[in-house]
From TrEMBL:
GO terms for molecular function: helicase activity. Pfam families: BT4734-like_N (PF08800), DUF3874 (PF12990), VapE-like_dom (PF05272). It comes from Bacteroides graminisolvens DSM 19988 = JCM 15093. Residues 566-635 form the DUF3874 domain. SUPFAM superfamilies: P-loop containing nucleoside triphosphate hydrolases. This is Putative helicase.
Length: 639
């Protein structure tokens, strides 16, 4: 199936230098009728839609069990939108209008899919497609915003089969099994410790009464009883006793099912929730998300207090005696499956086609650093490897920093790294002053952009180091009662308009500073599936995804141009210089150097900066050694 070509009906495309680009929009909406029994039902659907003058094309899908319907739309003046935003708005409204026109006339449901322009279908070999080149296009005013995600109300019909009516959502077999087990359990409670045929017959009478009151047919009750007591000499006794019990019963059949109300309510609630809603627990967001079935709601949304009350109210309208606490108990239980968005995206990727797309993405950033492509490649591998959970003891502590003037599209490039499906797990607003929230961001987001990196204060540098290298998150979630160990997903990237942004005197190996020399080129579309498939192929192939010492030294050397020159360093360079090993110099304490600078410059310098000043001297390469007086530095005074 993967080798069958695909057709995108809504737009036209062309390939330029191996990259597919959209060239136009033709206003064609595709509706899909799926899960048909075969060619007979597919022919029925095609014949039905052929009666509408607006049907442009109707054909059987490549599976032979679906029908694709194409309808053309246009604006009142006969034109079509020409910008991407207007195309998306127009197409979303057109899809809903087409659905409302075609669904009432079809006996089979149209499967609602998110109306994206690049929705494709596989090439078909239908020998008898319906095609009408004179089909009338539907007219639609250019919308100004996306349509509201309104839903149509699902009709609640009564179930004719008593078993399914008693326990909705269960098959007849499972319902029968559950009811019989409860009837047998209740009958066994009245059994005495004596054994014999009389006691067994009394048990059969109680069992038969419970089966009758539960609405279990006589033949099923006999068969299930015999399954439990497989003795041939007892078969006649079982059949005769249960038949007599059913004949002499005086209560209406099935009027008192042998199942407690709590169990029945729990089963009915589960059936209601699965029929009306799609639910998932977003492990990364830490909350339950929902999407109504049979609606135009194509995206999952978090459960709020308003949504919780609406679900409970809808259940009451269907006759369920539930409270909001019952709905909440179900939502926050194991009945709701766990959803891991980043892992699921990576696990659904196709095989890599062999093209190096990671370095191509790095090439979009114009710079003079010859090592940028390889450094970005290594960082990208590390980001994906930590998304897959390859290391629980180390974090992706290295972060690219794009430095350039405003308007060079630095932030746009950072956002473009994330695929559209994972954009909600990207943020460029992290506040290091709110430490608990910043730690939760490590679990909540996959990529964090430290926008305006130079705005980080000196007091926040220590916490920034902790955040960059923390392999796990140990904190308490909002409204939580205990400290949890949460998995870290986040990698970091940063932007700045100023070049002198590194202030840490202990080193800068955690940042890959790149000066952007021109506007970043984002005109070429990114094939995200192949981009991330390449990273996974490299990781699965055993390629190194962490930075080694040689690469860290390369980064540190290159970052010297981005180191902030403090006033203390400028004063030192004015009155001193580092001495070489083969020349005469003086061995001075840091406080002695500061005192000499204070006398020469007549500036008031705080001795509280002595420790910081010593680190600064070490960073700029001043030779030092330990002596009885402390740590001294080898310098030469300037005249």
């Amino acid at each position: 199936m993967q080798k069958i070509p695909q057709i995108i009906p809504a737009a036209t495309y062309r390939k330029v230098k191996g990259v597919i680009q959209q060239t136009g929009y033709n206003g064609v909406v595709q509706l899909e009728v799926n899960d048909l029994a075969g060619e007979h039902e597919a022919r029925m659907v095609k014949q039905t839609v052929a009666d509408l003058p607006q049907t442009l094309l109707a054909f059987t899908g490549s599976s032979g069990r679906s029908v694709k319907i194409w309808v053309r739309f246009q604006r009142p003046d006969g034109s079509l939108p020409d910008t991407r935003r207007d195309m998306e708005l127009f197409h979303a409204h057109a899809y809903r209008q087409a659905y409302r026109i075609y669904q009432p006339m079809l006996s089979f449901p149209i499967e609602m899919k998110e109306p994206v322009i690049d929705r494709a279908c596989r090439f078909t070999f239908d020998a008898e497609p319906f095609y009408s080149p004179q089909a009338q296009p539907l007219v639609l005013q250019q919308p100004l915003e996306m349509p509201a995600e309104l839903s149509y109300k699902e009709a609640v019909t009564s179930e004719p089969e008593p078993m399914k009516r008693m326990l909705p959502g269960y098959s007849s077999y499972h319902t029968l099994s559950l009811l019989f087990d409860n009837a047998l359990s209740d009958a066994l409670k009245g059994q005495s410790s004596e054994e014999g045929e009389e006691e067994f017959k009394a048990l059969l009478v109680r069992l038969g009464t419970n089966c009758y009151n539960s609405g279990i047919p006589e033949d099923d009750a006999v068969r299930w009883t015999y399954y439990h007591y497989r003795e041939e000499e007892q078969e006649l006794l079982i059949r005769t006793t249960l038949r007599n019990t059913y004949e002499i019963a005086r209560t209406p059949f099935g009027s008192k099912p042998c199942i407690n109300p709590e169990m029945a309510l729990a089963i009915a609630t589960e059936e209601f929730m699965k029929r009306r809603y799609e639910l998932r627990y977003n492990n990364q967001m830490g909350e339950v998300e929902y999407r109504e079935r049979n609606t135009f709601c194509f995206s999952f949304k978090p459960i709020t207090e308003r949504v919780l009350n609406s679900i409970a109210f809808n259940a009451m309208k269907e006759g369920l005696k539930v409270w909001d606490r019952d709905v909440k108990r179900y939502l926050y239980s194991d009945a709701v499956p766990v959803f891991k968005p980043i892992e699921e995206y990576l696990c659904d990727l196709p095989r890599w086609d062999g093209r190096d797309r990671i370095r191509e993405l790095a090439d979009a950033v114009p710079c003079n650093n010859p090592f940028w492509r390889d450094l970005f490649y290594r960082w990208f591998l590390s980001m994906v490897a930590h998304w897959r959970g390859y290391s629980n003891t180390h974090a992706n502590s290295t972060s690219p920093l794009l430095v350039g003037p405003q308007g060079s599209k630095k932030s746009t490039f950072c956002l473009s790294i994330m695929p559209p499906e994972l954009r909600q797990y990207y943020t460029d607003s992290i506040d290091f002053g709110r430490k608990r929230d910043a730690e939760l961001f490590l679990n909540r987001f996959g990529l964090i952009n430290i926008d305006e990196f130079d705005q980080i204060t000196t007091n926040q540098q220590a916490f920034l180091k902790h955040i960059l290298q923390a392999p796990v998150v140990k904190t308490r979630r909002p409204h939580g009662r205990s400290v949890q160990e949460l998995r870290r997903y986040a990698s970091f990237i940063g932007t700045s308009n100023h070049k002198d942004l590194l202030t840490d005197t202990s080193g800068s190996r955690r940042f890959i500073c790149i000066e952007v020399t021109d506007v970043i080129d984002l005109s070429r579309p990114i094939h995200y599936e192949q981009l991330y498939s390449q990273a996974l192929a490299a990781i699965y192939g055993g390629e190194r995804y962490w930075f080694d010492r040689e690469e860290e030294q390369l980064v540190t050397t290159h970052n010297q141009d981005f180191q902030e020159v403090s006033p203390l360093e400028e004063l030192f360079q004015q009155y001193f210089r580092p001495a070489n090993k083969n020349e005469e110099g003086e061995w001075l304490l840091a406080v002695g150097i500061l005192e000499h600078i204070r006398r020469k410059s007549a500036l008031r310098l705080s001795t509280g900066k002595i420790v910081h000043f010593g680190r600064l001297l070490t960073r700029i390469g001043v030779i030092s050694r330990r002596c009885s007086e402390g740590k001294v530095y080898f310098v030469v005074k300037k005249e």
